[in-house]
Structure formats: structure tokens, C-alpha cells
Amino acid sequence: MMSEFKEFAMRGNVVDLAVGVVIGAAFGKIVSSLVSGIVMPLLGLVVGGVDFSDQAIVLKAAEVAADGSETAPAVLLQYGLFVQSAFDFIIIAFAIFMVVKGINSMKRKEEAAPAAPPEPSDEVKLLTEIRDSLKK
């Protein structure tokens, strides 16, 4: 069973998948940073200086005791975080689309190139020589 597992784990597809997951996770962090640090502030500036990460609808206000301490936190519908996550998704999906499109175009070029015909076997060469000598 261990040898079967080792054979499975060392197969090219599994290793490629593992590398893809690790790179994808790192790429996701980069895109999240891009969206939260660059795209959303610019979008907020365009729509009037709004910080989307703070945007929320209060469904239930926080409960405060008589001494001023908070007994229950507020219940918020944080749509600003959703907008930010949606931008993350769109950018990641577009980047993956471009990578897949590039890989597919490279595969099409490889398929379009005609393969050289295989060299004839020794028997075929010998028969061709006999045929040519008989023609003379």
C-alpha cells in the first residue's frame, strides 16, 4: 500500500497540482494586497472619498450597560468587505484566464506544426533499393 501511495504521489500530475496550489495561494495574497492597498482606495476616491472596508449596514446596534461597558457587539452587514472580495475574485479570475489562454495558444501552435514523417525501416529501405534496381 505504501509503494502504491508513493507511486501515486510521485506522479507528475500530483506534484504539478501541489505546486499550483502553493503558487495560487501566494498569488491570492498578492492580489488581495493589490486590491486592498491600491484598487479600493482609488475606487473610493472616485466615488467621493469612501473607504469600502468600513462600509456596513447596522442590523442591530451594540448594547451598552449603564456603566458604559459593551454587553453585546453590534450586528453589521459588511457589504464593503464583499465589494473588496469581489474585486479580488475578478482580478484573480482574469489572471487565470490569461494564463490558460496563453497555454492553450502555445498548445495549438505545437499541434499545428506538422510532424516529420518517420524514417522508413531497414526492410522498407531494402525493398526500395531492390525496386529501384529492377526498374533499371
Protein traits:
Non-ribosomal Peptide Synthetase Peptidyl Carrier Protein, Chain A, 136 residues, mainly alpha, two-stranded antiparallel sheet
Q: What report would you give on this structure?
A:
The chain has helices spanning 2-9, 12-46, 79-112, 122-135, and strands spanning 57-60, 63-64, 70-72, 75-77. It is mostly helical. The termini are far apart. It has a single domain (2-115), classed as Orthogonal Bundle (Non-ribosomal Peptide Synthetase Peptidyl Carrier Protein, Chain A), CATH 1.10.1200.120. A two-stranded antiparallel ribbon has the order 1-4. Strands 2-3 form a two-stranded antiparallel ribbon. Helix 2 (12-46) crosses helix 3 (79-112).
Assign the CATH topology: Non-ribosomal Peptide Synthetase Peptidyl Carrier Protein, Chain A
Helix-strand category: mainly alpha
Uncertain runs are none
Strand content: 5-15%
Structural domains: how many: 1
Largest sheet: 2 strands, antiparallel
**What is the count of helical runs?**
4
What is the top-level CATH class? Mainly Alpha
Give the fraction of residues assigned to helices: 55-70%
Q: How many angstroms separate the termini?
A: 67 Å
